């Protein structure tokens, strides 16, 4: 969309405000809103100034002036504001006109450019499957003398005896019993459908929605694949709509990987493939799961670099509460066709040559999507460049349920890091694949690790309520 088309859209839709947004290191959106009367062609040339020192992981106070440069291809009408508002996602620049190398969107763009100059292909496509919970109540605190959290959902398994409903209505979702039941067990059909409707109005091509495995409001909505940066933009749009529709219904949505104990968490399975023009490069009829050698090498790169990659695709302490065996968590660094216990799965049901792809099941939605998709692509391209054969390295294929194997059978299967600190250690030891072509910089990685180390430490030094049960009587 051209600048002129955006200005015409503002007039056509009676837009009163234009909301300029950027994405920080952690994947959270920030915004500055201008009256539409103050937005003209010059705005798209000069950008919108903001204070970078107030954004976690950006700049110091002595170099705080930064500029948001609007991307006219990212615009959509905000479905929630009382005053008609147009949302525009922006790239971040320094005052001297240089792309800011800590801007996650800049890194996503550089990854796409690196692919185009690599000789491998022209376009990488990504499709995230981002799961979430919808709760009725959430409360938490962490102080000097108190630490607790509480979440509740009217459909949760623990509420079979709840009286607050004025007579319990039953039909609760059992633990691990939430996969695609119909109403009245699935009580959230309408709220998900409203999310889908608004996503479609905002330009997403939604393919389906359903209740997920866990009790207490587990949900998934799938939207169609797109190019790397566009898919990351779409995921930001998706999360914004999910959060705000839930709020309109008097509920709260969270993409936290493991908000409740004892049931499945929320992942973000990421499908990806590479094309050369209109030619799919991951398909080869007769190969394992009809995969080409290039696709297998791409898998090899992801699995080889997975411990480091996970520091970016699963960048929270809570991520590793999900990545434990027994809850469909993809903790095994192997590949397989159709096997959900493997970190990399190759979908085989109703797949065409153009739909041939790999699914990295480990990530979750605490990841910054621009960084996560870029890192995945760089790991896969390194595998292609080095012709990493995943089978030769013992990464499979494993077409049996790995959780059913004996300890002896599993002893040579690598697992994901057990903690965020372990993943960050792996990233510090294995980052060169990310800095190829200047996509990520060493300075960016050092800064990222520092931010995440601080998060991990802030959790590690706090007293956990369960410790009282374990140790208070010592």
TrEMBL record:
<keyword id="KW-0963">Cytoplasm</keyword>
<dbReference type="GO" id="GO:0019740">
    <property type="term" value="P:nitrogen utilization"/>
</dbReference>
<dbReference type="GO" id="GO:0046872">
    <property type="term" value="F:metal ion binding"/>
</dbReference>
<feature type="binding site">
    <location>
        <position position="131"/>
    </location>
    <ligand>
        <name>Mg(2+)</name>
    </ligand>
</feature>
<dbReference type="InterPro" id="IPR027303">
    <property type="entry name" value="Gln_synth_gly_rich_site"/>
</dbReference>
<feature type="binding site">
    <location>
        <position position="269"/>
    </location>
    <ligand>
        <name>Mg(2+)</name>
    </ligand>
</feature>
<keyword id="KW-0460">Magnesium</keyword>
<dbReference type="GO" id="GO:0005524">
    <property type="term" value="F:ATP binding"/>
</dbReference>
<comment type="similarity">
    <text>Belongs to the glutamine synthetase family.</text>
</comment>
<dbReference type="GO" id="GO:0005737">
    <property type="term" value="C:cytoplasm"/>
</dbReference>
<dbReference type="Pfam" id="PF00120">
    <property type="entry name" value="Gln-synt_C"/>
</dbReference>
<dbReference type="InterPro" id="IPR027302">
    <property type="entry name" value="Gln_synth_N_conserv_site"/>
</dbReference>
<keyword id="KW-0547">Nucleotide-binding</keyword>
<feature type="binding site">
    <location>
        <position position="212"/>
    </location>
    <ligand>
        <name>Mg(2+)</name>
    </ligand>
</feature>
<feature type="binding site">
    <location>
        <position position="354"/>
    </location>
    <ligand>
        <name>ATP</name>
    </ligand>
</feature>
<feature type="binding site">
    <location>
        <position position="359"/>
    </location>
    <ligand>
        <name>Mg(2+)</name>
    </ligand>
</feature>
<feature type="binding site">
    <location>
        <begin position="264"/>
        <end position="265"/>
    </location>
    <ligand>
        <name>L-glutamate</name>
    </ligand>
</feature>
<feature type="binding site">
    <location>
        <position position="129"/>
    </location>
    <ligand>
        <name>Mg(2+)</name>
    </ligand>
</feature>
<comment type="subunit">
    <text>Oligomer of 12 subunits arranged in the form of two hexagons.</text>
</comment>
<dbReference type="GO" id="GO:0006542">
    <property type="term" value="P:glutamine biosynthetic process"/>
</dbReference>
<dbReference type="GO" id="GO:0016020">
    <property type="term" value="C:membrane"/>
</dbReference>
<protein>
    <recommendedName>
        <fullName>Glutamine synthetase</fullName>
        <ecNumber>6.3.1.2</ecNumber>
    </recommendedName>
</protein>
<keyword id="KW-0436">Ligase</keyword>
<feature type="binding site">
    <location>
        <position position="207"/>
    </location>
    <ligand>
        <name>ATP</name>
    </ligand>
</feature>
<feature type="binding site">
    <location>
        <position position="328"/>
    </location>
    <ligand>
        <name>L-glutamate</name>
    </ligand>
</feature>
<feature type="domain" description="GS beta-grasp">
    <location>
        <begin position="13"/>
        <end position="97"/>
    </location>
</feature>
<dbReference type="Pfam" id="PF03951">
    <property type="entry name" value="Gln-synt_N"/>
</dbReference>
<feature type="binding site">
    <location>
        <position position="361"/>
    </location>
    <ligand>
        <name>L-glutamate</name>
    </ligand>
</feature>
<feature type="domain" description="GS catalytic">
    <location>
        <begin position="104"/>
        <end position="474"/>
    </location>
</feature>
<feature type="binding site">
    <location>
        <position position="220"/>
    </location>
    <ligand>
        <name>Mg(2+)</name>
    </ligand>
</feature>
<feature type="binding site">
    <location>
        <begin position="223"/>
        <end position="225"/>
    </location>
    <ligand>
        <name>ATP</name>
    </ligand>
</feature>
<feature type="binding site">
    <location>
        <begin position="271"/>
        <end position="273"/>
    </location>
    <ligand>
        <name>ATP</name>
    </ligand>
</feature>
<dbReference type="InterPro" id="IPR036651">
    <property type="entry name" value="Gln_synt_N_sf"/>
</dbReference>
<dbReference type="InterPro" id="IPR008147">
    <property type="entry name" value="Gln_synt_N"/>
</dbReference>
<feature type="binding site">
    <location>
        <position position="340"/>
    </location>
    <ligand>
        <name>ATP</name>
    </ligand>
</feature>
<dbReference type="GO" id="GO:0004356">
    <property type="term" value="F:glutamine synthetase activity"/>
</dbReference>
<dbReference type="InterPro" id="IPR004809">
    <property type="entry name" value="Gln_synth_I"/>
</dbReference>
<dbReference type="InterPro" id="IPR014746">
    <property type="entry name" value="Gln_synth/guanido_kin_cat_dom"/>
</dbReference>
<keyword id="KW-0597">Phosphoprotein</keyword>
<keyword id="KW-0067">ATP-binding</keyword>
<feature type="binding site">
    <location>
        <position position="322"/>
    </location>
    <ligand>
        <name>L-glutamate</name>
    </ligand>
</feature>
<dbReference type="InterPro" id="IPR008146">
    <property type="entry name" value="Gln_synth_cat_dom"/>
</dbReference>
């Amino acid at each position: 969309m051209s600048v002129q088309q955006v200005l015409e859209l503002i007039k056509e839709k009676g837009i009163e405000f234009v909301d300029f947004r950027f994405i920080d290191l952690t994947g959270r959106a920030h915004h500055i809103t201008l009256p539409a009367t103050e937005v003209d062609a010059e705005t798209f040339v000069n950008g919108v100034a903001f204070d970078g020192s107030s954004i976690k992981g950006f700049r110091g106070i002595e170099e705080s002036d930064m500029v948001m440069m609007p991307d006219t291809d990212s615009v959509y009408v905000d479905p929630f504001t009382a005053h008609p508002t147009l949302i525009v996602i922006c790239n971040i620049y320094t005052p001297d006109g240089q792309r800011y190398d800590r801007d996650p969107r800049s890194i996503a763009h550089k990854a796409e450019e690196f692919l185009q100059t690599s000789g491998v292909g022209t376009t990488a496509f990504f499709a995230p499957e981002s799961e979430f919970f919808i709760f009725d109540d959430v409360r938490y605190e962490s102080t000097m003398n108190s630490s607790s959290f509480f979440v509740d959902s009217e459909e949760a398994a623990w509420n079979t005896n709840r009286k607050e409903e004025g007579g319990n209505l039953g039909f609760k979702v059992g633990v691990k019993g939430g996969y695609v039941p119909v109403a009245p067990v699935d009580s959230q059909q309408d709220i998900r459908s409203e999310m889908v409707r608004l996503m479609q109005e905002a330009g997403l091509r939604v393919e389906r929605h359903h209740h997920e495995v866990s009790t207490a409001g587990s949900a998934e909505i799938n939207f169609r694949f797109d190019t790397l940066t566009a898919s990351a933009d779409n995921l930001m749009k998706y999360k914004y709509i999910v959060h705000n529709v839930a709020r309109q219904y008097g509920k709260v949505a969270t993409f936290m990987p493991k908000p409740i104990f004892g049931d499945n968490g929320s992942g973000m399975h990421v499908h990806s493939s590479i094309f050369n023009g209109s030619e799919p490069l991951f398909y080869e009829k007769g190969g394992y799961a009809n995969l080409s050698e290039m696709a297998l090498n791409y898998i090899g790169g992801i699995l080889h670099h997975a411990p480091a990659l996970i520091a970016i695709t699963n960048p929270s302490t809570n991520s590793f509460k999900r990545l434990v065996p027994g809850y469909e968590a993809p903790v095994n660094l192997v590949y397989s066709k159709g096997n959900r216990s493997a970190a990399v799965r190759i979908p085989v049901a109703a797949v065409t040559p153009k739909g041939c792809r790999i699914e990295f099941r480990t990530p979750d939605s605490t990841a910054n999507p621009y960084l996560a998709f870029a890192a995945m692509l760089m790991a896969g391209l390194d595998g292609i460049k080095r012709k990493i054969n995943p089978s030769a390295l013992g990464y499979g294929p494993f077409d049996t349920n790995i959780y059913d194997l004996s300890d002896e059978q599993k002893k040579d299967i690598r697992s994901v890091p057990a903690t965020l600190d372990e993943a960050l250690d792996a990233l510090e030891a294995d980052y060169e694949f990310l800095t190829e072509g200047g996509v990520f910089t060493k300075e960016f990685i050092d800064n990222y690790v520092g931010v995440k180390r601080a998060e991990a430490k802030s959790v590690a030094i706090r007293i956990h309520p369960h410790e009282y049960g374990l140790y208070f009587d010592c």
